[in-house]
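Regression test case RT-17, inverse folding.

Input:
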């Protein structure tokens, strides 16, 4: 399958890993939009939020658990952070493998840029 994030999971495209377990991988975003910008993805290829099913409950729970773990480990849990999923064209999705942006390290401002 020609999917950038599946290739990152396989290791055929390099990434800077932050966290990994059986279900999820977290790595540094290549074009950070904040001092901390980490992508958290399921190891299973799921194209968009619309394609998540109840069979994926554990993987989705593990994405949220990874976000909490990273926030605590990197020490921004109390200061705060934002976890974002972009879905399809209007949502601004560019890579069609489900991912959550974990953003932190400064006051993130308004939810929407425009
Ligand atoms: P989205 O617009 O929600 O689909 O976000 C895709 C994200 O993937 C963007 O923030 C990109 O900077 C990021 N990205 C694209 N290619 C890579 C890569 N090779 N390694 C890490 N992050 C990437
Ligand atoms: Zn994929």
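Golden output:
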């Amino acid at each position: 399958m020609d999917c950038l994030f599946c290739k990152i999971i396989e290791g055929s495209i390099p990434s800077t890993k932050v966290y990994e377990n059986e279900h999820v991988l977290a790595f540094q975003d290549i074009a950070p939009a904040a001092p901390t910008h980490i992508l958290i993805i399921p190891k299973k290829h799921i194209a968009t939020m619309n394609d998540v099913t109840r069979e994926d409950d554990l993987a989705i729970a593990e994405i949220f658990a990874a976000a909490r773990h990273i926030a605590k480990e990197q020490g921004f849990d109390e200061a705060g952070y934002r976890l974002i999923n972009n879905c399809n064209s209007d949502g601004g999705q560019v890579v069609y493998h489900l991912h959550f942006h974990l953003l932190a390290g400064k006051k993130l401002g308004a939810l929407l840029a425009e």
